[in-house]
Design goal:
It is a single chain. 46% of the residues are buried. The longest helix is centred in the middle third of the chain and has 24 residues. This protein has 19 helices and 22 strands. Helix content is 37%, strand content 23%. Helix 2 crosses helix 4, helix 5 crosses helix 6 and helix 13 packs parallel to helix 15. A hairpin with a 5-residue loop joins strand 13 and strand 14. It is of the alpha+beta class. It has an eight-stranded mixed beta sheet with strand order 5-4-8-2-1-11-14-13, with no helix packed on it. A five-stranded mixed beta sheet has the order 16-17-18-20-19.
Length: 608
Amino acid sequence: MAPPHPRDPSTAANYEQVTVSHYALKWKVDFEKKHIAGDVSITLDVKQDTERIVLDTRDLSVQSVALNLNGEPKKAGFTLEDNQALGQKLVITTESLKSGDRPVLEIKYESSNNAAALQFLTAEQTTDRAPYLFSQCQAINARSIVPCMDTPSVKSTYEAEVCVPIGLTCLMSAIGQGSTPSECGKRTIFSFKQPVSIPSYLLAIVVGHLERKEISERCAVWAEPSQAEASFYEFAETEKILKVAEDVAGPYVWGRYDLVVLPATFPFGGMENPCLTFITPTLLAGDRSLVNVIAHEISHSWTGNLVTNFSWEHFWLNEGFTVFLERKIHGKMYGELERQFESESGYEEALVRTVNDVFGPDHEYTKLVQNLGNADPDDAFSSVPYEKGSALLFTIEQALGDNSRFEQFLRDYIQKYAYKTVSTEEWKEYLYDSFTDKKVILDNIDWNLWLHKAGLPPKPKYDSTPMQACKDLAAKWTTEGSEAPTDGEVFAKMSNSQKLAVLDAVRVNKTMFGDRMPALTATYKLDQAKNAELKFSWLMLGLETKWSPIVDASLAFALAVGRMKYCKPIYRSLFGWSATRDRAISQFKANIPNMHPITVKAIQSLLK
């Protein structure tokens, strides 16, 4: 039997004694003060006798706490205690609570005007000149907008009433229940219910001037009106992707699958908030070439949202499985060779570079199962759990030699652990239970190397036919004595992912690239690229080869987009180049008021 889950080190909550089953939120969004004020009623399930309740907070102002045990709320004593990088502990002293009790905590509070989960944008900072708010609670930032048990180990339902200025629309990671005018007539109250239990990091809110475009009966896309048509076109195949995902992973349990295209300052490509995936506008390439992110976020509906890692030290159970499912979906839609190519690209372009260039091959954060201690999980965020985890699943599937049976195992695994949290040991035990006839094969996998050792794992055996074509084209630019291509037609006919693989292969062998950056740029028209991924790869190649004409474009790109996947490497390169360091630092510091707090923290860490 797999051992019980160890304690999640990223929370102070005493969830072993008492847990949360439901949050009822009443919020007022204040754009002038840049905070959320309101009340939360927290329904608790007492598992062990206790006289205290401990919740996670970060920079919250708590005005009052009451405990309602038998229908009568009574004031409760509380203290806020420092918890270093993890925020503060809200320690509530209570009368004796007995196992089986279901008391309700009632807390009145306000968030800080620099809450880690929130970004308030002024009208001048948005495309359509209306104020905007969005949240990002993963990994441990829910505690900055509500006192909670901020750990994936605790799943709860929630409901909310949110009061916002009239003329603005509010959305949440829940099913909308309609809206009503406030008593003052100057605000609107939106109501929501999330009947499926979720971990705190999936709590999400958006407030802004938004337009809705229907994709299907259960899918819609929301965006600022000026981006609504482009967003609708880009994500028109969402229902199609969702149906293929159901074929691979099982029934979709969340009711709706809506998308909201956020402002450019959103730190990530997407965030899998239930019922409402958050999407970066950098996906609006105009040709649907970046909708693989949608397949990824849809896959999270099963791996992450439905079956959840019990702590961030086992983050690969969310992300590695989701990348694997995303590519399974693409394999069903575009053929197995495409799945093989995407998997090999992920290994070579993301995993190898992250392990060797970002952390170093001996770093703790290059392990699949990590030891976070009291560090903020955001500090460990990288492509490692995504690509190393997916590569492990690919390796297992390949070793077992039966793709359809492995897909059935994935569906059975999701069904077994649906609505629960899971550890790596539990998953591994279930794998062995499901393949008792293949024990010898599974035993031949070096589990310690894959799960607990730092650095790169063995590269799976991919069908490298499409990858080799990309490397062959790149070699014409990087092989000494070779004549560089002057015709861009071959490159132009490639898929976006193949073009990225070509540039990545050039980057890997850039020491032989010499002074060919102007020719490469002109031949492939890279300075005109509308696809953000392609433009980013071009910028990074220019920075890595110290091509001075790339500096202005790199600074402009980092200023225009807040996605950490782009900003962090660009600023890292600019900070590390003596000719650009001072200018880049000056731009970054001047732009901090326009950036999301998560992005600011990540880039500030590069300056230490």
